[in-house]
Write a structure and sequence with these properties.
Shape: globular
Oligomer: single chain
Strand order of the largest sheet: 1-4-5-6-7-8-9
CATH topology of the domain at 48-287: TIM Barrel
Length: 349
């Protein structure tokens, strides 16, 4: 670890040090719950346009760090910019979320494979450079991407889904054809993450938000295998950059995920018990999580008790405080400020 990074609590924790108080940041810490975010969002027509504007995306990345003093800034972007960069039509509609032109067969994959993704993501890499230059000496910069399985679910379903019947049906019916899509995404995700690191990201996180919808055999094929390939290649190219995995909803399969992907840290979803994480995972990787976002929304004594319990449960572990999923849009900013005070004052006493 270099002298410059030795002062950054997040990087110390991910390198194996027990840091007290724990470093903290929040998934979706830049977003609609902040009035300053809403002011910036109102200046552009589309969410994609916002993500591809380095000046505005940099400002949004920095807003929560300025206001709350988190130990990390996470790049303001979206996991679906990668399929967009590969040529898939993408729109974000109010009240509906992302809408994509579905990919349903190998012909669709072949069309996407003919489009180099990185040139269309140069604006994102410029955001990384601008944010890294603006951050203080103690604040780390996190880059990210969606894991291949989760990105594929949106690409095949054409947006969000309740039962994932299209993507799972394709994977069951034609695993070789579906595997071509996963292979394309694995390669493109590796290149995108490596480019973010070269631009200044000090940590990267793989979001596999829909990992938990797969049975164990398919979990191994579509979650673990591509993730392991990405982590291995990132380690080869950038051995000092930790990779955090987030296989949301994986339950007991978290253990296999940790053992077989070789991530440096694992982010815990809200439902994973702390004692399971400490017993089964903590000797292998740093842990991150896992406050229920609704507790942050609720605030008050409930928040204080839950934070205290988590700090007690993870005491003595390599641990980064975070949520079990993203900040809810209705969360009062004063609750996030209160969380920061809890972590940085009473818990360090």
């Amino acid at each position: 670890m270099s002298v410059g990074t030795a002062t950054k609590p997040l990087l110390r924790a991910l390198a194996g040090e027990i840091v007290v108080p724990p470093p903290w940041w929040l998934m979706r810490q830049a977003g609609r719950y902040l009035p300053e975010y809403r002011a910036v969002r109102g200046r552009v027509r589309s969410f994609v346009e916002l993500c591809l504007n380095p000046a505005l995306a940099s400002e949004l990345t920095l807003q929560p760090v300025r206001r709350f003093g988190m130990d990390a800034a996470i790049l303001f972007s979206d996991i679906l910019l990668l399929p967009y960069a590969l040529g898939q039509a993408l729109d974000f509609r109010e009240g509906e979320g992302p809408v994509l032109d579905p990919v349903s067969d190998r012909h669709g994959v072949a069309r996407l494979a003919s489009t180099p993704a990185l040139p269309r993501l140069e604006a994102v890499l410029e955001t990384v450079r601008q944010v890294r230059a603006a951050l203080g000496a103690r604040t780390a910069l996190i880059g990210f991407a969606g894991a291949p399985w989760t990105v594929a679910t949106y690409m095949v379903e054409g947006g969000g889904s309740r039962d994932f019947r299209r993507v799972k049906g394709w994977a069951y019916r034609d695993p070789r054809g579906f595997g071509e899509l996963i292979d394309l995404l694995t390669e493109a995700t590796t290149e995108f993450l490596a480019a973010q690191i070269a631009a200044g990201a000090e940590v990267v996180q793989l979001f596999d938000s829909w990992a938990g919808v797969l049975p164990d055999r398919e979990f191994a094929r579509w979650v673990i295998e591509p993730t392991a390939r990405i982590v291995s290649e990132i380690k080869r190219r950038h051995p000092d950059c930790p990779v955090i995995g987030f296989p949301r909803g994986a339950g007991v399969l978290y253990e296999r995920y940790v053992n077989e992907t070789c991530v440096a840290a694992v982010s815990l979803d809200t439902t994973l018990p702390a004692d399971f994480a400490c017993r089964k995972l903590g000797s292998h990787v740093a842990l991150q999580g896992n406050l229920d976002p609704v507790l942050l929304l609720t605030g008050g004594d409930s928040l204080a008790r839950a934070v205290g319990q988590l700090c007690h449960s993870f005491a003595g572990m390599r641990w980064v405080f975070n949520l079990g999923h993203g900040v809810l849009p209705e969360t009062p900013p004063e609750n996030v400020a209160a969380l920061g005070r809890l972590l940085n004052s009473s818990l360090s006493a």
